[in-house]
Amino acid sequence: MKARFPHLDDSTVEIGKHDRARFEAHLAKLHNLSVNEAREEIDDLLYIETLNREISDPGI
User: Fold this and answer.
1) With CB atoms counted within 10 Å of each terminal CB, which end of the chain scores lower, N or C?
2) pTM for this structure?
3) CA 36 to chain centre
4) C-alpha separations of 13 from 26, 48, 57, 59, 60 in Å
5) pLDDT in tens, the chain (60 residues)
6) CA neighbours within 13 Å on the CB side: how many for 6?
7) Which residues contact 55 (CB under 8 A, 6 or more apart)?
């Protein structure tokens, strides 16, 4: 996640665990994105992570 969002810090990630809308807004502000762009980036990242898990553990 840090590779895609270099201005992200640990406290911001904690926000994301509890309040996705607030996390999206904060991420957008930090990286000069719209909230929609931030949401799409997060969705893409989560999709890729899901695919990686499926490849790593085909028993899922």
Assistant:
1) C
2) 0.73
3) 12
4) 10, 18, 25, 29, 26
5) 778 888 888 777 777 788 999 999 999 999 999 999 999 999 999 999 899 888 887 665
6) 1
7) none
